[in-house]
Design brief:
Strand content: 5-15%
Structural class: alpha+beta
Helix content: 25-40%
Shape: elongated
Strand order of the largest sheet: 1-2-3
Number of domains: 2
Radius of gyration: 19 Å
Length: 115
């Protein structure tokens, strides 16, 4: 997991002058990035974004975190999701949902084509 859940990302933002609050409901809501110690200005759950210009001075950056992965023939699908997905769904749950949908669709297509 990236974003403010990652210790290194949280530390980067704090070093840039941000205040980071802990989740108000552990396991449900993410930590937030704030401009002020009273935690009244901004309150974002992301630290990398193309928008949110008001938080740029306190660690917000448009620079993405990039990882390069080699895909193989064994890989069935690739899940790309924003913070809105990963706030509420664990990675394995997302895999399970995609796996079920992928295989259900493949079976219905095969049945339709008579394959």
């Amino acid at each position: 997991m990236g974003g403010l859940r990652a210790q290194t990302e949280r530390a980067r933002c704090i070093q840039a002058g941000a205040f980071v609050s802990q989740p108000t409901e552990p396991g449900l809501l993410d930590a937030r990035l704030w401009r002020d110690p009273e935690m009244t200005e901004v309150g974002l759950t992301v630290s990398r974004s193309l928008g949110h210009h008001g938080a740029r001075g306190v660690g917000m950056t448009p620079e993405p975190t990039v990882r390069e992965l080699a895909l193989s023939v064994a890989d069935e699908f690739l899940i790309i999701g924003s913070d809105g997905l990963w706030t509420f769904i664990e990675p394995q749950e997302a895999v399970d949902i995609c796996y079920e949908e992928f295989h259900a669709t493949a079976l219905s297509v095969r049945g339709y084509r008579g394959v």
